[in-house]
Amino acid sequence: MISNGHMVAELLNASASGIAAMAADKLVNERAAVRSEHRADAVRTWRECVSSRLPFLAAAVSTACPRVFVEQARWAHTAYASRGGEPAALAFSASLECMRDVICEQLPPEAARLAATYVDHAIDSIRVSPPNPAPPMDASTRIGRLISRYLAAVLEGDRRAAAMLILDAARGDDGSAALPVRSLLLDVLVPAQIELGRMWHLNEATVAEEHFATATTQMVVSQLFSMLRFSPRNGLVAVAASVEGNAHDVGVRVLADLLEAEGWRVVYLGASVPAEDLAQAVDMFEADLLCVSAGLGSQLPAVARTIEAVRAAGRGRQVKIMVGGGGFAGTCESEADPLWRRFGADGFAANIDDGLRIAGQLCPAAKKTGRD
């Protein structure tokens, strides 16, 4: 099944532009609800929609995990509903049906049946249990109010004011007791990013605002690093990065900083690191632990390639590998055979606290010396 899934995923990726064009044309021609005076604009819009779904379908088929596509389709359904109400949500569901129909027409029968089954899983999931948007954060607590004020400053385009809110809270210069840097990272900045993602999802924030906010948060995380309390070095080395294609690295960066505070020497490589370069870094820095993050389900094949490359390199048998990130949403429901284990990882972190705990379990603190 896995081997066949890889073949079907390759067919989907190779045929993506054609499938998207034909599905969009079919949708606009056959579904009155999506027709407009400007047919070319409608076709282009829905071609982009289908094009955006196909990498997730290919990833789901490649990894033999239908939830990868189901989760993304449900997320996209909510995004369309937030921007165009029920008509847009219905049109999105229709676009999935047209995509499935074109796949059945264009791919070889066996490949088409497998891919269509995955699309049907998503269609049925949306039909049986329509997605509900996540609720807004609670702004009634001190932490909640700080997040709200931070986001307000960011959305007003004032990164200096946003940064000072966090730094004043760390020093106790805001009239309240100082908040631990760890709490500011885990309880304020990371939730602020999640809230911003929710706002963009529901059309309450623009792409530009999201990009500015993320850049501001990265700046503030850097400023907080020097304010952490660092434990003595424990002799362990971690390499941390986002996999190739993942430009979102706030979460794995915070994990890297907190591992450093716990005594690890952390080699943080940043966003979108190719598999071969990560494998080289593991060998070069004699890493005990590799932490890799996938933000989207479409990046899961990159996680698999990364683990394969690392295992084939010099320290492949020694290094422990921990994976995490939003790309794994819905993939860990099988206790016996979760996706991360099938990839060859040693652990999965559902969040940063989880990552710190699992890192300690995978690599008991150091018996090593001379590696500071």
Q: How do you describe this structure in short?
A:
The protein is α/β, with parallel strands linked by helices. It has 3 domains: 2-128, Globin-like, CATH 1.10.490; 142-225, Methyltransferase, Methionine Synthase (B12-binding Domains), Chain A, domain 1; 237-362, Cobalamin-binding domain (Rossmann fold, 3-Layer(aba) Sandwich).
- Residue stretches low in confidence (pLDDT < 50, at least 5 long) are none
Looking at the structure, what is the overall shape?
Answer: globular
CATH class of the largest domain: Mainly Alpha
- What is the CA-based Rg, rounded? 22 Å
Mean pLDDT: 92
The secondary structure category is alpha/beta
Please work out how many helical segments DSSP would assign: 14
Corresponding CATH superfamily of the largest domain: Phycocyanins
Tell me what the CATH architecture of the largest domain is.
Orthogonal Bundle
Q: Could you give the count of β-strands?
A: 5
Which structural traits does this protein have?
Methyltransferase, Methionine Synthase (B12-binding Domains), Chain A, domain 1, Globin-like, five-stranded parallel sheet, 3 domains, 372 residues, Rossmann fold, 62% helix, alpha/beta, globular
Note down, in words, how this protein is organized.
The protein is α/β, with parallel strands linked by helices and about 375 residues long. The protein folds into 3 domains: about 1-130, Orthogonal Bundle (Globin-like); about 140-225, Methyltransferase, Methionine Synthase (B12-binding Domains), Chain A, domain 1 (Orthogonal Bundle); about 235-360, Cobalamin-binding domain (Rossmann fold), CATH 3.40.50.280. It is about 60% helix and about 10% strand. It contains 14 helices and 5 strands. The protein has a 5-stranded parallel beta sheet with strand order 2-1-3-4-5, sandwiched between helices. Strand 1, helix 10 and strand 2 form a beta-alpha-beta unit. Helix 2 (about 15-30) packs across helix 3 and helix 3 crosses helix 4. The protein is globular and about 65 Å long. It starts with a helix and ends in a 10-residue tail after the last helix. The relative contact order is 0.09. The model has no long low-confidence stretch (mean pLDDT about 90).
